[in-house]
Every structure is written in C-alpha cells, then in structure tokens.
Design brief:
The chain is mostly helical. It contains 14 helices and two strands; from the N terminus they run H-H-H-H-H-H-E-E-H-H-H-H-H-H-H-H. A two-stranded antiparallel ribbon has the order 1-2. Strand 1 and strand 2 form a beta hairpin. Helix 1 runs antiparallel to helix 3, helix 3 packs across helix 10 and helix 4 runs antiparallel to helix 6.
C-alpha cells in the first residue's frame, strides 16, 4: 500500500514537473508558426500595396488582376489557418473540437486548391495573349473578366471543399496533433472517392500550368528564331509591336514562371501524399507533416516575387543587361557587320524581335526599286 502511494506520488510529482516544463518547451515550438504567420501576413500586405500603387499594374488588365487575387488569397489563407495552429500549440485541446478541426481542414483544402487554380488561370491568360491574340480579344479578357473568373474560382472551390463537412468525407486530427485534414486513412467510398478527386483536380491543375508555361516559352522562342532571319520591318508594324512588346510583357512572363515554380514546388508534395495515403497501406506521419509544412511556406514566398520583380527594379535589370549587350555588340567585328543593317533594325529593342508575330511581318512592296550609285559618273561632265 505504501508502495502504491509512493508510486502514485512519484507519478503525480513527475506529472507536476511535466506541467511546469511544458510551457517552456511549447514556447520554443510555437516560435516557428508565429514567425511564419508574421512573414506571410506582412509579405502579402506589402505585395498588395505594391500592386495597387504601381502605375504599370493599374494599367494592366487581366494578368495583374489575377496576381493581386493570388496575393489576397495567400493573405486570407495565412490569417485563417495560422491562428488555429498557434492556439493549438498553446492548448492541445483546441483542435480536438470537431468543428474547429473541420474548419481548419476546409481552410487547408480551399486555399491550397485555389492557389493552384489562380496560377493555372495566369498561365492560361498569358497563353491566350501571346499564342491566340484574336481569341484573347474576341473573349474580351480584361480586368473585369479576370474578376469574374476569380469569383467563379472562389464559389466553385467553396462548394467543392465543403463536401467533407456535408458527409462525403471526414476530417480528423492528424497523429502529430498539430493540424487537421481529410481522413485519408479511410479506403471506403465515398471518402476514398473524395480523396482521389481532390488529388486528381490538383494534379490536373499542376500539369496544366506546366504545359501552358512550356507552350508560352516555346512560342516566344519560335518568334525569336523567326524574327532573327528578317532584316526589314514595315514601320507601322514595328511601331505596333514596340508598343506591345515592352518591358511589362517580359515582366509578366518572369512573374508567371517564378510564381508557378514556387507554387508547384510547394503544392506537389501534399498532392503526392494524398495519392500515397490512398494507394499505400502503411502511413508515414512524418512525410505528411513535412508536406503540409512545405505547402505552408508558399504564401510566404509568393509575395516577394511580386515585390522583387516590381517595375522599377525590373527595368534596372533590363537596362543593365542592355548595356552589357551593347558593349559586346560594339566590338569591331560586330560594328562592321551592323553596317549592312538599316538604322531602324539596329535601334530596335531585342524585346521587339521576341514578340514579333510572323503574320504581322510583310515583305517589301514590289514597286520599290533600288538605283545603284556609280562613283564613275561622279566627276563626269554633263
């Protein structure tokens, strides 16, 4: 009996010691989610301000409306998901409430899928603008069109990501007790159907974004190769493409490619884990936790792409590259070769050649004739 009391007293003492040491360890563990929350919120706020006050972005139509929509989406996702995680670090009973667990699962599902959809829409907008300009104009793809499409993405994804709360699947607290997500251990329909459906939609968006980016880059390279073989442009066509193929177009492509790379790299591991947990009988809790942590880094990295690639900084980079290129072109051999080109061709910007369309380029009129200049007649008396 004394031994029992002693053991009970030891357990009670150890439990008391653990309670006293728990806040200190929790304070160390809670630092990371707090820093991620602050970084994501502050970064996206700065990005939204930069996109709003920049003169070029105000004049842009659909593309930068989608970029601003992605920044707002990342900001909302950070502000809705992070406080629950921080609260759960303070009190591990927070996410044991099924309603809060369902809400956090919905937030992770919705904002993960919405970010992929907006990135895919940005890639599609650039594809239509560069590869299908007539379709782009006929559909009236402008800022109003982009806002309507963003609204469609939000409404459709709210309905789709609410299906687990409607009974098609269920959300549960993951084994690490730090986050909630769909119960991907259930292999019975309809839970398994929803997991496969969510993973398939995410995979289609990822593959679609990659394909559209490849098509855009391939079209630009093809235009560059075709324009390199032409020496003369008609003045009106040259002025038209000089107005279109400015630094803003190149900046859009740079923002698209870099943002796509970040979003896809951060989202792909979670999509892989969705399929792996359905197809494999053995679960890997550490891999699942690593995948959701990688996905949570995405809202922190995205805004700095818009901030670092703002118009003023991007123009400085282009001007520096032009200076380096002009220094190389001013070499003796290159200067001798440039004598065979007209002034308009020498002064045209490399971006004008990059986006020049072969259908817009025409040959010289047949009525133009050239009169050779014979130096032997210069001093001949009349």
């Amino acid at each position: 009996m004394e031994s029992t009391n002693f053991t009970h007293g030891s357990v009670s003492t150890n439990h008391t010691l653990l309670q006293h040491s728990y806040p200190s360890g929790m304070e160390t563990a809670i630092t990371l989610p707090i820093l991620m929350f602050v970084g994501g919120a502050v970064g996206n706020l700065i990005a939204i301000i930069v996109l709003s006050v920049s003169k070029m972005e105000r004049k842009s139509s659909a593309f930068y409306t989608l970029v601003c929509g992605l920044a707002v989406t990342d900001l909302l996702g950070t502000c809705l998901a992070s406080p629950l995680i921080i609260a759960n670090y303070r009190d591990q009973h927070v996410l044991q409430d099924q309603r809060l667990c369902d809400f956090q699962s919905f937030v992770l599902l919705f904002f993960g899928l919405t970010g992929l959809s907006i990135i895919c829409a940005m890639a599609a907008e650039r594809y239509l603008a560069i590869c299908c300009p007539y379709t782009y104009l006929r559909w009236g793809v402008d800022r109003c069109f982009a806002r309507k499409f963003l609204f469609f993405i939000y409404i459709s994804h709210v309905l789709f990501c609410s299906l687990p709360m409607m009974g098609m699947a269920s959300s549960k607290l993951q084994p690490t007790s730090t986050w909630c997500f769909i119960d991907w251990t259930m292999h019975e329909a309809p839970a398994a159907v929803y997991s496969f459906l969510y993973g398939s939609v995410s995979l289609v968006l990822i593959l679609g974004t990659i394909l559209l980016n490849l098509l855009v880059c391939g079209a630009l390279l093809l235009m560059r190769r075709r324009s390199a073989h032409r020496c003369v442009f008609r003045a009106s066509v040259q002025e038209h493409w000089r107005a279109l193929s400015s630094a803003a177009e190149t900046q859009m492509i740079a923002v698209l490619v870099m943002t796509s790379a970040v979003v896809l790299a951060c989202s792909a591991p979670l999509v892989v884990r969705v399929f792996a947990n359905q197809l494999m009988q053995k679960l890997d809790d550490k891999a699942d936790l690593a995948a959701i942590r990688i996905a949570s880094v995405n809202p922190i990295l995205d805004p700095w792409i818009y901030i670092l690639l703002r118009r003023s900084l991007f123009r400085r980079i282009l001007n520096y590259s032009k200076q380096v290129g002009s220094t190389r072109r001013n070499s003796p051999t290159t200067a001798h070769r440039n004598l065979f080109y007209t002034n308009s061709m020498r002064d045209s910007h490399v971006l004008d050649e990059l986006l020049s369309n072969s259908s817009m380029v025409t040959q010289l009129p047949a009525t133009i004739t050239f009169t050779p200049y014979d130096i032997t007649h210069k001093d001949t008396p009349l």
